[in-house]
């Protein structure tokens, strides 16, 4: 379901939002010249603890919002205010709202997230990996729609295949001190985020004691068993989180030795955006 008019509208509004959400700059030191940078080409998942912490931080934002208000009754803006008090990102509610709304439209229209990316910042290989992650969510949503939402371990299996393929075939460059990485670090980190948020929202759909159970229960209906409806909506929220991360604009730099230009991404910044999008979707 590729809606041309929808994509044109979203591309325009995303250009505006990317401008605002890219306002926080990281240290512009080049990845290739940083002493704390590590370059890896391995299938053994380097930096795994760092990437796992990204997912844990994201989920901690959701926990904080849930602990400090009844999310089934709070408005989206009220949830944002709580999320902002935790992340201290400096983001504006109006920007996060448009971001979340646009991502939700993409998910509901069954369009690929790649249509919203600043593709000049990515290699064709990187875009292919993003498409693979997009497919993981498409398959999970399709299964949920038919009454069989994948368990977190099944979803993780598909995502782990992408992570392994990236480490096997590409260079993952991360400066964990400054929190910056290249396009493959961005995507691997997004994969870990996807696993963390998927599990969080799946568990919220089946555990009545979870902070977000009441929120998800608002979307239960008679079409399918209530827990499946909750899980279906939760998977959509997890997809919003994941795509909010990868749509964060990269920073362009020029290598002083070769004169070539490239991009790096400030990973903590992307995480705050994704976490706020997660806590404030419809």
Question: Would you mind describing this structure in some detail?
Answer:
This protein has one domain. It is 60% helix and 7% strand. It has a five-stranded antiparallel β-sheet. Strand 4 and strand 5 form a beta hairpin. It is globular and about 60 Å long. The N terminus is likely disordered.
Secondary structure layout:
Elements (H helix, E strand, L loop, with lengths): L3 H18 L15 E4 L7 H20 L8 H12 L5 H16 L15 H22 L6 H18 L2 E4 L4 E2 L1 H24 L6 H5 L8 H21 L4 E4 L6 E6 H14 L2
Antiparallel strand pairs: 1-2, 2-3, 3-5, 4-5
Summarize the structure.
The protein has 282 residues and is an alpha+beta fold. It has ten helices and five strands; from the N terminus they run αβαααααββαααββα.
Looking at this protein, list some descriptive labels.
alpha+beta, 282 residues, 5-stranded antiparallel beta sheet, globular, 5 strands, disordered N terminus
The radius of gyration is: 18 Å
Instruction: Give average pLDDT, whole number.
Output: 85
Order of strands, widest sheet: 1-2-3-5-4
Tally the helices: 10
Strand coverage percent:
5-15%
Q: How many domains, as an integer?
A: 1
Shape: globular
- Span of the ends, CA to CA: 22 Å
Low-confidence stretches: 1-43
Fraction in helix: 55-70%
Query: What's the main sheet like?
Result: 5 strands, antiparallel
Number of strands: 5
- Give the helix/strand class: alpha+beta
Order of helices and strands: HEHHHHHEEHHHEEH
């Amino acid at each position: 379901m590729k809606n041309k008019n929808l994509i044109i509208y979203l591309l325009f509004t995303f250009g505006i939002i990317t401008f605002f959400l890219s306002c926080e700059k990281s240290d512009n030191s080049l990845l290739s010249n940083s002493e704390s940078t590590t370059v890896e080409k391995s299938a053994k998942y380097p930096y795994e603890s760092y990437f796992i912490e990204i997912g844990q931080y994201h989920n901690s934002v959701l926990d904080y919002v849930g602990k400090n208000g009844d999310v089934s009754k709070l408005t989206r803006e009220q949830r944002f205010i709580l999320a902002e008090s935790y992340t201290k990102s400096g983001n504006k509610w109006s920007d996060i709202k448009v971001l979340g709304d646009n991502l939700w439209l993409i998910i509901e229209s069954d369009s690929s997230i790649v249509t919203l990316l600043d593709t000049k910042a990515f290699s064709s290989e990187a875009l292919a990996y993003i498409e693979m992650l997009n497919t993981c969510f498409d398959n999970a949503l399709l299964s949920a729609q038919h009454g069989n939402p994948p368990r977190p371990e099944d979803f993780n299996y598909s995502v782990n295949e992408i992570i392994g393929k990236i480490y096997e075939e590409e260079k993952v460059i991360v400066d964990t001190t400054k929190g910056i990485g290249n396009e493959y670090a961005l995507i691997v980190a997004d994969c870990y985020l996807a696993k963390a948020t998927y599990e969080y929202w799946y568990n919220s759909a089946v555990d009545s004691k979870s902070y977000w159970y009441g929120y998800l229960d608002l979307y239960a209906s008679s079409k399918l068993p209530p827990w499946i409806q909750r899980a279906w909506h939760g998977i959509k929220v997890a997809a919003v989180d994941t795509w909010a991360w990868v749509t964060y604009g990269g920073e362009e730099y020029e290598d002083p030795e070769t004169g070539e230009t490239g991009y790096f991404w400030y990973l903590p910044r992307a995480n705050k955006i994704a976490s706020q999008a997660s806590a404030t979707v419809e």
